[in-house]
Amino acid sequence: MKINLKQKLLGTVTGYKDAFFNAPFAMFFCALIGCLALIHQHGNLSQESATRVERAAFVCVLGIPFSLLMEQMASRIRNTLLKVAVWIAIIAFLVLYYFIGVPSFGMKTITRTLGLTFVFIVSYVLYYSEVNKLSYEKFTLYVLKRLLFTGVYTLVIWGGISFTFFAFSELMDIKLWNEAYIDFLFVTLGFLIPAYFFYGFPRERTQEEQDISPFVTTMISYILIPVILAYTAVLYLYFIRLLVTFQWPEGMLGHLVFWYGLVSTAVLYFVRPFAKDKKITDLFYRYFPYVNIIPLLMMFTSLGIRIKAYGFTEPRYTVGIIGLWILLSVCLYLFKNRFKNINRWVLISLIVICVVSLIGPFSAYSTSIASQNRQFSLIEEKYGFLSQPETFKSENMDDQDRERAVSILRYFDNNHTLDDLKLPENIDRKQLRTMFDFNFYPAEPYRYVNINSKDAHSMDIRGYDYLLGMYANDFTVKSKSGAEYRIMMEKTEFVIYLGEEELYRKDLGEYVILTYQEKSQSNHDSSKDPYNLMLPASDMIYEDKTENFQIRFYVQSAFCRVFPDGTIEVESLSCYTALKITE
Length: 583
Hints:
- By secondary structure, the protein is an alpha+beta fold.
- The protein folds into four domains: 205 residues, no CATH class; 148 residues, no CATH class; 71 residues, no CATH class; 135 residues, no CATH class.
- The strands form two sheets. Strands 1, 2, 7, 8, 9 and 10 form a six-stranded mixed beta sheet that branches.
- The radius of gyration is 30 Å and the shape is globular.
């Protein structure tokens, strides 16, 4: 079969043109994400500049579904000035979100941005289906199918490019640059794959969007529904056990029912168009909402016990609010005959609940902060430690109360800031360290710190015989007299042997520890990120000299554990070594 190369190239160009026509802003944001990722990878940025690049990339991720939604609205506007106003609104919203919504990286920023991204995706599905008179569930399946195929295409294209370059470098004995394969992934995701994905979103109604494949209907009817029914039977057996033992549910039950409720609600959503085609789907669609109520009540009971004991946190809030949406959806399906398009209201309720949980005074963040403040106040009222911070000793507290107080402090330190913890004006938050013997690091008795060289440098090896890349742990080198020395890297120790005799041993971790102790307090970047210390290359070069050897170590990075008492352990490091044999 003859392949017309010219026709294939023209088809590719046409595909890119159609993709830009369908989603110009989304294509631009994908390309910008790819560029930002490459800049972050190879730009030799300071910590502050790297954070700005990460924030911009995160805003671009949000901009993809937001621009799709706004462009759909703009496509129905005939007035050119109004269309331009919509485009300006896209840019203005994202610029404002960069400065207001992503002030820094943290749990709140990441989850809120991802949550809003999900809201815009659901809003796009709802709006597109509404204006084009499409079935909500069928169009949702169409979008999911394109996402699935896009993921497969990404792996195939990236794998093909990576394998080709790997074969070329191995056969031609040409080494690729560092992180070449991750760069190929950024290029694939930023510049190649988006054209395929957005090419599949035509502005007009297509038959493909209206079809549900037999594979999907078979999987839902004969795999997912039987599994859900079997799982439901297990939950009802557990419920009967609760009635016999009079023990309220807690622990993992809430999470298990949470995911069970999500999957079953999704099946109810997708099964609606073909529910009457098969007896099992018809019975499931008609009667399962009644069956689902008791497991949901069990979940709320379990969650309520946890919240009463420990207060709200973002995960508990999320389980509760999504559980509320599941319960609302179940109620809608119970009265489905009274609604013309039941799934429209399911999607609308999901959007509303997500927005409420992400923004405003009733959001997961505001609710959790207020709840944890109340929990901390209850403990303080019991022991009165804020009224006597200088003399208070946490050893006098009940172990459970002390662990709870420390857990609350960790919650604020890790997920928000200690400024969100309401304390009397005369209390310095740093005093909490002494009061609870708490270092504000994660629950482990130490924290991990990465020490890296932050600027590019050339290695001066004039006067040395060998340059050793210590990513390989075993070398054999020869001196001018013909003696063979075996050089090894044993964790962080550089060792030289002559036969079985050990001639030299140096623990490079000692150098790293001294450097960390000298630079960590004065380094500006480290104060912003306690888990990373970026140092000039000159601070990462160490020299040593013996009777037989002159050595210069170029440490590129070190992975350390820092304990509350100041003790430091270097777990691993990466370095180059210049060696001169002076025998």
